Amino acid sequence: MPERDHYIPGVPCWVDTSQPEPEASLEFYGGLFGWELENSMPAEAPGEYFMARIRGGDVAAIGSIPEGMPRVASWNTYIAVAGADETAAKVRDAGGTVLMAPFDVMSSGRMAVCADPEGAVFFLWQAGEHFGAGVVNEHGALNFNGLNTRDVSGAKAFYGAVFGWTTLDLGGSEMWTLPGYGDDLERDNPDLRKMIGEMGGPPGFEDVVAALTPIGADQPDTPAHWSVTFGVDDADAVAAKAAELGGAVLVPPFDAPWSRLTIVSDPQGATFVASQFVLENKDLGG
């Protein structure tokens, strides 16, 4: 389902990258994903925010680093909420930190910047005129979000308390699920569960909202963080193009369950995953 018109509370709904020099990233992402980019901020605004679109539909954005935040390029995950203020209170009650208190983003919505108890940063998004990504799950569009953590049990307690998430055991790995999410998706795609079953997906997979990835002992310098994955038609071609455009291929393309993946850093250092769907790989790692 490549086009969306809403997100229910508890579902990752938007991504953007905070960059020291946003304009310097336009050529990279435009060349890599074919994005149409337009600065949505008024001329007198202190920062820039370039909306990225495919066929006129919003997919992501490239923006300035907010004042007070570290001057480090990063990709950010936004999670839809019914009320940013109420959810920020839940974050505090569950042991997390509200790094930026809820504030209005003109008429687009209301947001807050938070961190879980391990320090992984995520954003809350209460939709106004902007509900999130309108085009997903295709080349150059948001495909997935994932939490990388050393404290899986602590993460389950925190995100369960804040968003009502549970987990689905895939036999060796787990995914975040939101009960009822599949029901919402089936309103636009009545054959969703049937399609998942025909492809070999397990019962309950329709409720998956994000990945849950333990950080191994072989990665002592990797902090807990949220990652962003974009869909691509050809992971090998994207890796080659990223290098050509001045980025770095941190992990060369490799086969994984259901996919072929590569991890890329843009010229200013923000990292992301590019994922090519490969049905023939569905049983890898099983």
What are its keywords?
single chain, 286 residues, alpha+beta, 2,3-Dihydroxybiphenyl 1,2-Dioxygenase, domain 1, eight-stranded mixed beta sheet, 6 helices, 16 strands, globular
Question: What does this protein structure show overall?
Answer:
By secondary structure, the protein is of the alpha+beta class. It has a domain at 12-127: 2,3-Dihydroxybiphenyl 1,2-Dioxygenase, domain 1 (Roll), CATH 3.10.180. 19% of the residues lie in helices and 38% in strands. The chain has 6 helices and 16 strands. The chain has helices at 26-33, 84-93, 152-163, 181-186, 192-198, 235-244, and strands spanning 12-19, 36-39, 49-54, 57-64, 74-80, 97-105, 109-115, 121-127, 142-149, 166-169, 174-177, 208-214, 225-231, 248-256, 259-265, 271-277. The strands form 2 sheets. Strands 2-3-4-1-5-8-7-6 form an 8-stranded mixed beta sheet, with helices on one face. The longest helix has 12 residues, at 152-163. It is globular. 38% of the residues are buried.
Radius of gyration (CA) equals 18 Å
Beta content? 35-45%
- The secondary-structure class comes to alpha+beta
Describe the global form. Answer: globular
* Largest β-sheet summary: 8 strands, mixed
CATH superfamily of the domain at 12-127: 2,3-Dihydroxybiphenyl 1,2-Dioxygenase, domain 1
Total DSSP E strands: 16
Strand order of the largest sheet: 2-3-4-1-5-8-7-6
Compute the average pLDDT.
93
CATH topology of the domain at 12-127: 2,3-Dihydroxybiphenyl 1,2-Dioxygenase, domain 1
* Percentage of residues assigned to helices: 10-25%
Taking the alpha carbons of the first and last residues, their distance comes to 26 Å
- Provide the CATH architecture of the domain at 12-127: Roll
Q: What is the overall number of helices?
A: 6
Helix-strand topology string: EHEEEEHEEEEHEEHHEEHEEE
CATH class label of the domain at 12-127 = Alpha Beta
Ranges where pLDDT stays below 50 over 5 or more residues in a row are none
